[in-house]
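Work package 3, deliverable 3.1, input record:
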Amino acid sequence: MEFLVPVLLIGGLVSLYIGSYMLNKRIPIPEECKVIVDEEKCTTCHISTCSNKK
Amino acid sequence: MSFAIFATAIISAMLINNVILMQFLGICPFLGVSKKSSAAIGMSAAVLFVMVIASAVTYTLYDLVLYQYGIPYISTIAFILVIASLVQFVEMFIKKTSKSLYKSLGIYLPLITTNCAILGVSEGNITNIWTKTIPYWEGLLIAVTTALGTGLGFGLIIFAFSSIREKLEASNVPDAWKGVPISLVVAGIMSLAFLGLAGII
């Protein structure tokens, strides 16, 4: 049963991440910050699928 | 524990083993968010903030859970998940509580999730500081101090680099060297300059 410990731990951490991500998405960005969010994008590369460019 | 241990940890992490110029971690924000000094300051403040919290959490997780249950081999994936979750919680907290803080830090927080410097410091704390015999609180304090020094070192370099890039914008640089090429040359020269600090402690 020892193998269950890492599985449960990783599963718990993944659930924690998904939960925190969904909670964070539900909270809107303050209106006055939206312009800055659009301006300050990372410009290192041209990878269109990078989440930092969305 | 003496003050000298903490002072040594901060100076060593900040200048001698600088995370960007000596360990080559966190190069993405170093190049991507260093066009303007204001952005560099915001980014380095956010990195410092998350790095210190992440170090404390990951050190605690390793010492009290992973080592105790004999599963230190999952430390990397556990640390990645902890850091990603931590960034989400910190962003959520800042969004809710302080709009002014979100204006200066919050927009850089999603970028930090993928910043290898945070993971590098957390892993480095386990490799270099954690031992079976060191008391938990002592190790935790040294880990947090090291993270503080590393974050300050990151801020120092990214701010200096952004200031140089702002100057370069107004300089007469050959077309082929404009942008990233001249920035990489500057980064290389900065790295060489910091090599001179090696061995002072």
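The interface with chain B takes residues 2, 5-6, 9-10, 13-14, 16-17, 20-21, 23-24, 27-30, 32-33, 36-37, 40, 42-45, 51-52 of chain A (CB under 8 Å).
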